[in-house]
Design brief:
This protein has 165 residues and is α+β, with helices and mostly antiparallel strands. Helix content is 25%, strand content 26%. The protein has 4 helices and 11 strands. The strands form 3 sheets. The chain has a 4-stranded antiparallel β-sheet. Strands 8-11-10-9 form a 4-stranded antiparallel β-sheet, with no helix packed on it. It has a 3-stranded antiparallel β-sheet with strand order 5-7-6. A hairpin with a 2-residue loop joins strand 3 and strand 4.
Length: 165
């Protein structure tokens, strides 16, 4: 669907699009987005500044399924709502009438570098040093914004991995 690797995290404005975990973030807060709307956003963001035709989006997100343009309009409306984007004066998703859509947001120069600087790998996993040699048991952390986060220890690397999505 996209030309990036599955572990890519792209940042634009106050948002971060995590393809590996299919999450949209505004700072530390996860933004709810339906799976098809996420797929449309992921596809468009993967081609910044380029016109992505309606036909291309329908084929990429609903392959082998006969659907009308109305489902695409609903997905775009959901994306704009999540991004607080106004279709009349867009900051992120521009409509090319009767043709398709274009992502016009400013993508951070190096989203992966930003994630690495924060100690987060491209897979959305944060490295935290573990003290001691005993391997801790996996534990469930309290739910945050409806998400359950689990911790796992890796004895070989001596680091605790905490999922961020």
């Amino acid at each position: 669907m996209n030309t990036r690797g599955p572990d890519t995290r792209i940042s634009f404005d106050a948002f971060s699009l995590d393809s590996a975990n299919q999450c949209l973030w505004r700072g530390p807060q996860a933004i709810k987005l339906r799976p098809k709307a996420f797929a449309v956003l992921d596809h468009i963001v993967g081609r910044p500044g380029q016109l992505v035709t309606k036909e291309e989006l329908l084929n990429a997100v609903w392959p082998g399924t006969f659907v009308g343009e109305a489902v695409l309009k609903v997905a775009i409306r959901q994306i704009r709502e999540a991004l607080d984007d106004d279709p009349k004066s867009p900051r992120f998703i521009e409509t090319a009438h009767r043709r398709g859509y274009r992502f016009i947001g400013q993508i951070a120069e190096s989203s992966q570098t930003l994630a690495k600087d924060q100690g987060i790998g491209g897979d959305g996993i944060q490295d935290v040093p573990v003290v001691g040699t005993k391997r801790p048991e996996p534990q469930a952390l309290p739910a945050k914004n409806g998400l359950q986060v689990k911790r796992h220890a890796e004895a070989e690397s001596g680091k605790l991995l905490a999922a961020s999505c």
